[in-house]
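> Could you send the Sugar lactone lactonase YvrE prediction when you get a chance?

Sure thing. Input:
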Amino acid sequence: MHPRLPRFLPVLLACATALACSAAQAEPQRVARWEVERFVLLSADVRHPEGLAADPASEQLYVGTFDARMPPSARNNQLLRYAADGRLLAQRSFGESPLTGLAVADGKLYLLNFGAGRLQRIALDFDAAAPVEDVARFEALAPAAPAPRRIDNPDGSQDTVVFGAAGLPAINGMVFDRAGNLYVSDSFQGAIYRIAQATRCAPCTVSTLLRDPLLATAGALPFGANGLALNADESVLYINNAGDGRVLRLPLPDGPLTVLAEGLYGADGLQFHGGRLWVVANQIDTVLALDEAGRVRGRAGAFLGIAADGAPEGLLFPASTAVLGDWMFVTNLALPLTARTGDEWEEEVQRWSLSRFRLPARP
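Output:
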């Protein structure tokens, strides 16, 4: 060793450490991007796919439609069953009654019949004539609207949002836990319901788990509490508020309810998969992957226009997701919302579709 080297060794080590730290700090932190592709084009007479569920055992996908056209006699709501390769295997008519959330549990397909205000179930291998069983009925709450929400403004002032509701249940999202208990959101009445052991009862008792001003909205998109998801150990229930563009966090069994993430306009369908919260942001035509701190880690899809066959290219007003194998599937609800004509691409859609994208490796 050079005789002077010991004197400078600490300095050299410090410089080397600083350079390594600087290099580590310079490593880019990127938000992943995933491209979507069309999976299947719905039949010409079927529109507005909303709910979506998957059965890993049979590798089949289930789709429910939210056709709310007026007059009701114009509607053609359907429950659809697809193979993993996109073949339509069966469909059952629900006529005038729009459907929202779907879920597979204990060998049955559960569906939220929005029009009837009921939780129902049907065989996984249903056909056009399969019977539908009523499981639970949702009623008007008293009071119909949750309490007012106080907002503290940056200038020290305060606003108070007073919500209105007509007592119409708007059952929208649902998620089962591993014990068969079911959680259901109500988008108009600002509520989360719980049905104990929903796979083993009929009729079932509906309990109101939570009513909170954070579950209601006064936003332009008139749906509050929407998609639901449980974390890996089922200690936390995550809730989307579509009109507020927020993901909420509720530690079970009794809270408190807090805001996890915001700025996700149109936060609709929600699921927890691969250590991420997958949020369908329907008003920005994107599926977002969030970590459990609420930070966006990835984005899938965008609206790219209307194809020659009249269906969306990319995503347009996506509503729900489901996972089969290495793929995440997405419904393109493509539902016009405003009374004005000519301001929404959804008005141009002539055919409706499902999209998909390949899931990343687990982080």
